[in-house]
Design brief:
- The structure holds 2 protein chains of 2 kinds.
- Helix content of chain A is 22%, strand content 36%.
- Chain A is α+β, with helices and mostly antiparallel strands.
- Chain A has 2 domains: 227 residues, P-loop containing nucleotide triphosphate hydrolases (Rossmann fold); 125 residues, OB fold (Dihydrolipoamide Acetyltransferase, E2P), CATH 2.40.50.140.
- Chain B is mainly alpha-helical.
- Chain B folds into 3 domains: 41 residues, no CATH class; 42 residues, no CATH class; 222 residues, MetI-like fold (Orthogonal Bundle).
- In chain B, a hairpin with a 5-residue loop joins strand 3 and strand 4.
- The two termini of chain B are 45 Å apart.
- In chain B, 31% of the residues are buried.
- The chains are: A alpha+beta, B mainly alpha.
- Chains A and B meet through strand 6 of A and helix 8 and helix 9 of B.
């Protein structure tokens, strides 16, 4: 469904050097119009650099960046159809809130009254109606961020760029703003490109996510695809938690792979849906998410398969308990998360227990 | 609470340690600033005697005609005009204002690009080196620096000999003894004072504001006008005052570069205080000059008040 949307931004083999440092190493990606797109990756992987190549603050060493079908090489930021919400918000301290929001309207041919109305509308849209006359330097962090949003959106850009806009806010406010940003994006229908190093934020907000490591896009997919079938162990580890066990591929035919994994035994996996990655010299690995396995209590039956294990560590979170259990015949403990439903005890360290799991929830990294 | 407790409380209190900390500075300020100022104020309303100041109140040092007392205590037959009534003093005051405004304008206009360059174009690791270089003129005394300009600009000085040697001029140019020469000299002398506050103001500007300006459709130049310049006005205002206030009272440059032919207000104050032995009149002119400078400065601050409001 989303593939029908036209392309808004296209990177073709983009490289960027800072002196000797190779900051972007061959970026190829397409961002669609109206999409909420996130750039996710650890600190220093080049997310900000990539975002700034779109805004025009950073030139590229080779490759092409197309915005709305147009090569933007040499086009200065003030002539690009993009606007940015800076990490520090960059609110002009010498201006009032409405002067900040109206900053980009200087060359707008509309009348003064129309512009003032546009400013009021933009402020109302971000929930700051009536704040126009305030001095910008007297605003709270959350309010600054809204001013920055209004100031960018009032110019009706084709693309809104957001560089970690929520990282300076406290947890509660951040979660509120995440929801508000999603709503706002749906309302205005503009392409949003969000930079974040918070995987949860990216999963919650995005239509698609590009996971970046060391100047390269490791995987570009929908949040669900990224979580279900990460292409590499690095991506699997960066997004949520995944347990890994060494495995052997016994045979592969007709879209079915026969494998044997330590502690789990033999099983058949669907190659298309469950096998990923290029052949690695270290041998294959199977992975599973903590919530796809379950500890079996008393007479509970496994829905699929079960293995014996010993509880090594218990981390109690109130609604959840995380168990680190060692499957018989393996060296490393696996994490299993259990919802604390009423009447279910929390197990002690050292308890022998059965672990229920499904081959269908496993991912094999070749 | 006993008196002893109260006392020990005071000696141990933060207020006391605060006072103790500033007391050397406070003493110094009182002795060297407040006391002479008070003396000058008093002298300006006293009567001039022969080599002494007689504590007899009068306002004619400021306005109207005044008589000094002779050595034998009788009023002198000759009168002199008070500071505000004397056309010569008025003319010198106007000239001083004129010169210092020219100097201020020239210094600040030349200082801004230098400060801008160091703040925006010099590599962060080189900035302190640049600031250090800018302060090099301070390594020699003010008088020597001023005199150096005399060497440069006199009839037989460096500039004239070079120009004559190259055959560009046949007659030496008259540079010393002109107001322009004084302006150039003073502007050079005060340049570092003007550069530093502007530099500090520019350094404080968050660079992402400039990117935001361009992101919102402005060119580099219009971003400068709409963002950088207003945000650096605190520094410009500081520079203006730092240059304007002392140049009005400068008396070295009129002597060395003006050759005494273009006196400014400080020169006439000096003359009254020393040569003419009329300390009450000298004091009255000094106080009047101070008032004029103070008023202009306050007016200037008032006109620029919107730049000085609290900014983060
Ligand atoms: N102007 C610059 N000069 C030299 N190196 C730079 C410059 N800007 C960024 N880099 C380097 O490029 C790499 C990528 O930087 P970038 O700011 O894009 O990282 P990031 O992914 O946004 O990280 P973070 O999450 O910490 O903001 C970093 O290693 C950084 O040191
Ligand atoms: Mg960054």
């Amino acid at each position: 469904m989303s593939s029908e949307k036209p392309t808004m931004i296209e990177f073709k083999d983009v490289h960027k050097y800072y002196g000797d440092y190779h900051a972007l190493r061959g970026i190829n990606a397409t961002i669609k119009a109206g999409e909420f797109f996130s750039l996710l990756g650890p600190s220093g992987c080049g997310k900000t650099t990539l975002l700034r190549t779109i805004a025009g603050f950073e030139g590229i060493s080779s490759g092409v960046v197309l915005i709305d079908g147009k090569d933007v090489a040499g086009i200065r930021p003030n002539h690009r159809p993009t606007n940015m919400v800076f990490q520090s918000y960059a609110i002009f301290p010498h201006l009032t809130v409405e002067q900040n929001v109206g900053f980009g309207l200087r060359k707008d041919p509309r009348s003064k009254e129309d512009k003032a109305r546009a400013v009021d509308e933009a402020l109302a849209m971000v929930g700051l109606a009536g704040y126009g006359k305030r001095a910008a330097h007297a605003l709270s962090g959350g309010q600054r961020q809204r001013v920055a949003l209004a100031r960018a959106l009032i110019l009706k850009p084709k693309v809104l760029l957001l560089d970690e806009p929520l990282s300076a806010l406290d947890k509660k406010l951040r979660e509120n703003m995440q929801v508000e940003l999603i709503k706002l994006q749906r309302q205005v229908g503009i392409t949003f490109i969000l930079v974040t190093h918070d995987q949860e934020e990216a999963l919650v907000m995005s239509d698609r996510i590009a996971v970046m490591f060391e100047g390269q896009i490791a995987q570009l997919d929908s949040p669900e695809a990224l979580y279900r079938l990460p292409k590499t162990r690095a991506v699997a580890n960066f997004i949520g938690t995944m347990n890994f066990l060494p495995a052997k591929i016994l045979s592969e035919a007709g879209g079915i792979a026969e494998i044997e994994a330590a502690g789990l035994g033999r099983m058949a996996l669907n190659v298309e849906k469950q096998v990923t990655g290029a052949v690695s010299p270290g041998g294959a690995t199977v992975g599973f998410r903590p919530e796809t396995a379950t500890l079996l209590f008393d007479t509970q039956e496994a829905t699929d398969r079960e293995s014996m294990a010993t509880v090594e560590e218990v981390v109690y979170y109130g609604d959840m308990t995380y168990y680190d259990v060692k499957l018989d015949g393996t060296a490393e403990p696996m994490r299993v998360s259990m919802r604390n439903v009423f009447g279910r005890p929390v197990l002690d360290i050292g308890t022998r227990t059965r672990v229920g799991w499904s081959p269908g929830a496993l991912v094999l990294f070749r | 609470m006993s008196e002893r407790q109260v006392r020990s409380r005071f000696w141990g209190s933060e207020a006391f340690s605060g006072l103790a900390l500033i007391s050397p500075t406070a003493l110094y300020a009182i002795l060297l600033l407040a006391a002479p100022l008070a003396t000058t104020l008093l002298y300006s309303v006293f009567t001039d005697g022969y080599l002494v100041v007689i504590p007899h109140f009068q306002l004619c040092n400021y306005i109207g005609e005044c008589r000094s007392q002779l050595a034998d205590g009788t009023p002198s037959p000759d009168t002199y005009l008070g500071a505000w009534s004397d056309p010569i003093t008025q003319a010198l005051m106007l000239r001083s204002l004129n010169v210092s405004m020219l100097v201020t304008a020239m210094t600040v206009l030349l200082a801004y690009p230098v400060a801008y360059f160091v703040s925006f174009n010099v590599d962060a690791s080189r900035k302190s080196l640049w600031l250090f270089l800018i302060t090099i003129p301070f390594w020699t005394s003010y008088v020597i620096r001023v005199f150096m300009w005399n060497v440069m600009m006199s009839r037989t000085g460096v500039i004239n000999s070079v120009l004559e040697g190259m055959g560009i001029i046949s007659e030496p140019l008259q540079m010393v003894f002109t107001i322009q020469a004084m302006v150039v000299t003073l502007a050079h002398a005060y340049a570092p004072f003007a550069i530093l506050p502007i530099f500090v103001a520019l350094e404080k500007i968050d660079r992402s504001l400039l990117e935001a300006g361009q992101d919102l459709g402005e060119t580099r130049f219009t971003t400068f006008l709409r963002v950088t310049l207003p945000l650096s006005m605190t520094g410009v205002i500081a520079s203006v005052l730092i240059v304007f206030i002392p140049t009005i009272g400068d008396y070295v440059t009129p002597n060395l570069i003006g050759g005494g032919k273009i006196p400014m207000i400080a020169n006439i104050i000096e003359k009254q205080m020393l040569k003419a032995d009329n300390r009450p009149l000298g004091s009255a002119i000094a106080v009047s000059a101070m008032l004029v400078v103070g008023l202009i400065s306050v007016l200037f601050l008032f006109l620029n008040r919107r730049y000085l409001k609290g900014q983060k």
